[in-house]
Records
---
Amino acid sequence: MNEKLKADQDVLLDDLRTVITDTEGMLKDVAQVGGAEAQALREKIAANLSAARTKLVETEKLVAEKARIAAKATDEYVHEHPWTSIGVAAGVGFLLGLLVSRR
């Protein structure tokens, strides 16, 4: 499941990069033309920016889903192995304490 989310996220990010690159090219073209051609390019730019916003929302949803899955897995692990979790937390706290005290 995590691999599918990662693959979907990568596809969305690639699409977003493509949209941004295309939009940048169109902005350069708008600077060189005027009149009806400029209006048509502005409309294409607006459509590309709308598509980019949509892709960004989709990516945000994927990242949130991935975070929920990770949180659920962590919660399950802690409930199944409470003493191990306490030991790891204590060890990390001890190491951080050592690092902070050395400064």
---
Amino acid sequence: MSVEIETAVFDLLNAKIAPGKSVSPEEVARAVDPEGWRRLLGHVRAVVRGLARQGKLVILRHNKPADPDDFKGVYRLRLPIGGDPTFAAPAAEVDEGDAA
């Protein structure tokens, strides 16, 4: 199911004529399953969070990039453009005492 969601996200975004245009998670879910799209919304959210962490996608809240690990509520999706902040997954912390 994740592959279908990823494909739908990028197909919808690439179909937009102007750069910087966004799509809703509902549009993505409807593209994957027009009848049962509501049950896919949680899965869409999980997939797009991963894509945003990889820098392949930007999650927007109030038309501004949002941290994929710390956003709530209504959101939209768009392809990255120059100047977008990056929200990479944090590196594992190393305890100084364990480095010896």
